[in-house]
């Protein structure tokens, strides 16, 4: 019953559609620096979010597939971001973290 109630209160993230495409790509690719950064970004975005259960489940699958924990992922991505910018600036000069 609790699952039914929580599912009825789920929200769709405004970035769900583009995030879904990114996750689908990650599911079939290797853990490159860019892909690790994307996994970290989406993990932060969906952590505690009341919805996006499909994306959350696929992120968990990626952690297992790539043999990572959140701690090891964030350590790796801090190192990656410390070496060089991983994302190029978009024309609207806004990073997509929310």
Secondary structure elements and pairings:
Layout: H1 2-8, H2 16-28, H3 33-46, H4 53-65, H5 70-83
Task: Tell me what you see in this structure.
The protein has a domain of 68 residues. Helices cover 62% and strands 0% of the residues. α2 packs across α3, α2 runs parallel beside α4 and α3 runs antiparallel to α4. It is globular, with a radius of gyration of 14 Å.
Largest sheet: none
Helix-strand sequence: HHHHH
**Overall mean pLDDT:** 87
Query: Helical percent range?
Result: 55-70%
For the secondary structure, the number of strands is: 0
Distinct helical segment count: 5
Query: In one word, what is the shape?
Result: globular
Strand content: under 5%
What are the segments in which pLDDT stays under 50 over at least 5 consecutive residues? none
Q: For the terminal residues, how far apart are their CA atoms?
A: 31 Å
Structural class: mainly alpha
Question: What integer value in Å does the Rg equal?
Answer: 14 Å
Keywords:
5 helices; mainly alpha; 98 residues; 0% strand
Please sum up the structure shown.
The chain has 98 residues and is mainly α.
